[in-house]
């Protein structure tokens, strides 16, 4: 389930076309994962899923749920300790389900829904605000001043003070906690407190590229062995294509 919108997401098995897109796309992680989600993610409840209108947090969750469906729940990565004189490798392990649950949204005190759908008010402040959507992020990242662009689209306030900005930031972080977050822990070698940024979009794209790196070789093997055209091979579900490629590899190893 996507944490903010509550959409129950179904993720289909990738085809070679999906894998080729992941491996060859030159666009940034945000538009790349948006396109991938459009390709493989559907709403279990039915109806059209307008990805750009969903809360931005939900695209990060969708990326992780796609990764869980195709690779598994457990994430294992590492970092290098930046402590003085220490270059120890630090293992980082966590589950996608636990990570999303840790960032589950809540309704903070003092925040109420405004008459206009999707907008909120803050007690004691002349302000309306809404949760940034995927469309807002796309617009902000293409602008020269992303923070100002995002504020202009999601805030309706005559004047904003430093104190009000902090209240708004806390309210939004509770209503729709960002999954782009910091992971922390202590280095087992020197005890240095280590933090590392976890970006679900960039991480998912990088990991899927590694997982799908064999798409060209497998396509070549099937085309060479069976004479199938590329478009027919790429249309196959990943599991079936990989079974054919495995059969070919086994037969060639004993030939």
Looking at this protein, list some descriptive labels:
11 helices, two-stranded antiparallel ribbon, 10 strands, alpha+beta, four-stranded antiparallel β-sheet, 255 residues, 47% helix
The low-confidence runs, each spanning 5 or more residues with pLDDT under 50, are none
How large is the count of helical segments? 11
Portion in beta strands: 15-25%
Shape from CA axes? globular
Classify the secondary structure makeup into a structural class: alpha+beta
Q: How many individual β-strands?
A: 10
SSE order in H/E notation? EHHEHEEHEEEHHEHEEHHHH
Mean pLDDT: 92
Instruction: Give the radius of gyration.
Output: 22 Å
For the report, how would you describe the main beta sheet?
A: 4 strands, antiparallel
Helix content: 40-55%
Strand adjacency order, main sheet = 5-6-7-8
Beginning-to-end CA distance, first to last residue: 48 Å
């Amino acid at each position: 389930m996507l944490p903010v919108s509550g959409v129950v997401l179904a993720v289909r098995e990738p085809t070679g076309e999906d894998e080729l897109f992941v491996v060859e796309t030159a666009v940034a992680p945000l538009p790349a994962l948006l396109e991938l989600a459009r390709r493989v993610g559907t709403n279990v409840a039915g109806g059209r899923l307008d990805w750009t209108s969903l809360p931005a947090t939900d695209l990060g969750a969708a990326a992780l749920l796609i990764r869980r469906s195709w690779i598994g729940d457990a994430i294992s990565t590492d970092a290098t300790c930046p402590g003085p004189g220490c270059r120890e490798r630090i293992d980082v392990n966590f589950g996608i389900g636990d990570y999303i649950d840790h960032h589950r949204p809540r309704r903070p005190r003092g925040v109420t829904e405004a008459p206009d759908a999707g907008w909120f008010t803050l007690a004691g402040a002349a302000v309306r605000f809404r949760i940034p959507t995927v469309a807002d992020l796309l617009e902000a990242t293409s602008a020269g001043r992303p923070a100002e662009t995002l504020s202009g689209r999601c805030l309706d306030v005559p004047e904003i003070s430093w104190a009000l900005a902090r209240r708004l930031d806390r309210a939004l972080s509770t209503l729709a906690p960002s999954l782009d977050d910091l992971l922390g822990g202590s280095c087992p070698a020197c005890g240095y407190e280590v933090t590392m940024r976890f970006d679900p979009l960039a991480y998912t794209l990088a990991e899927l590229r590694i997982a799908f790196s064999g798409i060209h070789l497998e396509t070549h093997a099937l085309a060479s062995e069976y004479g199938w055209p590329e478009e027919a091979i790429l249309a196959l579900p990943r599991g079936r294509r990989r079974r054919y490629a495995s059969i070919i590899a086994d037969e060639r190893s004993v030939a």
